[in-house]
Amino acid sequence: MAQSCVPCYERPRNFQWYWKSSDEKWEEYLHVENEIIEDAHNERQEYVDIDGGYKIDLKQQIQQKSNSHERWPIKRYQFDKHLTNVQLREDRFSPPISISTPATVATMCSDKEILGADDSLKYWLNEGSLDDIYQDLENADIKKTISDLIQESSDGIIEEGISIGEAEKARWLARQLNNVKNYGENIQFGTNKVPSEIGKTLINLFTREPFFYVHI
After folding, report:
1. Does domain 12-87 have CATH number 3.30.720.50?
2. Is-contact 3 42, C-beta < 8 A?
3. pTM of the full predicted structure?
4. C-alpha 68 chain-centroid distance
5. CATH 3.30.720.50 domain extents, the chain
6. Count of Cβ atoms closer than 10 Å to residue 57 Cβ
7. CB 193 within 8 A of CB 16
8. Which of 128, 92, 135, 129 lies closest to 108, judged by CA?
9. Whole-angstrom distance, CA of residue 214 vs CA of residue 200
């Protein structure tokens, strides 16, 4: 099985790709870019695109800006098997955690400046059951499987990624979901029985640094 088809939570993480900036400092590629380049490396591709209009030349070990002569060296570092490349997401995990209370939720739900006229969001905050909300809003007359929803999510991620200029990250994220989509083929949405393979994949992707985190 190709490495890119292996569920992301089962992949080794003992590698890191770097690029050399103009001040001669080696900078780490962030999580999803690191995985995109590693997939291409494992599949023996010569080139791979990353967001920002950059092309990675794996044969010559350089990063090049499209329609430009600018080039930056790249390199791959292999860690020992028992080590990983886990990078701390300071913006997400370092700040103190604020505890929500029923009072704060009620305040949020009554704050029109925050919620505007979005009745769906108010319903979500008040009811708290995403399964029930989705069924009420989208799934009332159509019996969808978890696999169907994974496909919808993948399509939505790609659409959003293209709209904000991060199409390559979006395509990689969508591929990871599609790699485990088959586990939900015969399971109707709303049964609260999410296959562990899909659950692990969702957690793995969310705890990286994909673009959709800042939109949630």
Report:
1. yes
2. yes
3. 0.75
4. 29
5. 12-87
6. 14
7. no
8. 128
9. 20
